[in-house]
Write a structure and sequence with these properties.
Layout lengths: L3 E2 L5 E2 L8 E5 L23 E2 L2 E2 L4 E2 L9 E19 L10 E7 L12 E8 L5 E5 L5 E10 L3 E2 L1 E8 L13 E2 L8 E5 L4 E2 L17 E2 L9 E19 L10 E7 L7 H8 L3 E8 L5 E5 L8 E9 L3 E2 L1 E8 L4
Antiparallel strand pairs: 1-15, 2-13, 3-7, 4-5, 6-12, 7-10, 7-11, 7-13, 8-9, 8-11, 14-24, 15-18, 16-17, 17-23, 18-21, 18-22, 18-24, 19-20, 19-22
């Protein structure tokens, strides 16, 4: 079975989809720091200017003349551990920072002058108009990030790939339904066979889709078969309710959908997960979908199998805006 694999089980902790935001910045005269967190790939518009000069799709500070350096402080929507970083300087050629560093902080309070930051990425050289990728050795859990650029310049995108690490003790009431698939809680997309349109991570994000581009959509299938996507739940749980939302998908929603489940804790090769998933238990048999609609399904009370992975099948192809898996957290987690 063919598949398009993504960063297995890693979430972009810098994504606004999980609530990440800029809380302080030294200077963003030419380009707002919030642009740096945009989930979409950066673009260059030849003749676009604003009142400050050339419009750039990213964070860009003015030219420093004081010998200092610029910085941005970011509050992650969910705390986590960072494994990979991409400081993307796309389209910044004569105005990219030569160096950057990243520090992290885990705290319930916003950073202040006494905060003890932990080094995540030491001062490292950057290339212009490039994806500057770094593997991270530190396994520090962080809630805040301080990106420093030396001395000034522009960063198109910042990606912080890692794992959400929540304190599950917060969910003390074992009878409360939790959105087990939520990106913000640590749900992640493991694999899919196609995602030609849109941003696949939107499938697990908060709220209803804003447009047809805010969801998972496959190309038009011209051969036999159907499309699918595999999700790792944020925590092991007992599924009670499923929501499939086709918001904004009208002439291109899937005709039918089904959902399969599995429960395993050990690490498995991605290809093995994909191949095994064809034989997973069906928790929702093939069911008709409608355009631009929230579909709700209550799960049989007799089902007592705890679940760690879910596979959504769509027939034959099309677009789904959101998938929400609600359930009870496992008592063993």
């Amino acid at each position: 079975m063919s598949a398009n694999n993504i960063n297995q089980n890693l979430t972009n902790l810098a994504s606004p989809k999980i609530g990440t935001k800029i809380i302080e910045v030294s200077d963003d005269f030419f380009g707002k720091a919030s642009r740096m967190l945009n989930d979409k790939e950066p673009v260059f518009i030849e003749d676009k200017y604003d009142e400050h000069g050339k419009w750039m799709d990213g964070w860009e500070s003015k030219r420093r003349r004081d010998g200092g350096n610029d910085w941005a402080i970011i509050e992650l929507g969910s705390p986590g551990i960072i494994y990979e970083i991409n400081v993307d300087t796309s389209f910044f050629t004569g105005n990219f920072p030569p160096f950057a560093s990243i520090e992290g902080l885990y705290s319930d309070q916003k950073p202040n002058k006494n905060s003890k930051w932990v080094e995540i990425l030491p001062k490292s050289q950057l290339k212009g108009d490039s994806s500057n990728k770094f593997k991270i050795k530190s396994k520090a859990k962080v809630r805040y990030i301080r990106l420093q650029i030396f001395p000034d310049g522009g960063v198109a995108r910042l990606r912080l790939f890692g794992e959400v690490k929540l304190d599950w003790n917060f969910y003390e009431n074992k009878n409360d339904l939790i959105e087990l698939s939520s990106l913000k809680l640590g749900g992640s997309i493991v694999a899919y066979n196609n995602a030609h349109y849109g941003d696949v991570s939107a499938l697990l994000s908060d709220g209803r889709g804003k447009t047809m581009g805010d969801g998972w959509e496959t190309r038009r299938r011209r051969e036999p078969g159907h499309d699918w996507i595999i999700i790792k739940l944020a925590t092991k749980g007992l599924i009670k309710k499923i929501e499939i939302d086709t918001a904004h998908f009208k002439g291109n929603y899937p005709d039918q959908a089904s959902i399969q489940i599995s429960n395993f804790d050990e690490e498995k090769n991605i290809e093995k997960i994909i191949n095994d998933s064809e034989n997973w238990k069906y928790i929702l048999n093939k069911t008709k979908l409608q355009a631009d609609k929230i579909h709700n399904y209550e799960i049989d009370e007799k089902l007592t199998q705890e679940v760690t992975y879910v596979r959504l099948n769509i027939y034959p192809d099309g677009g789904v805006s959101r998938l929400r898996i609600f359930g009870l957290k496992s008592s063993n987690e």
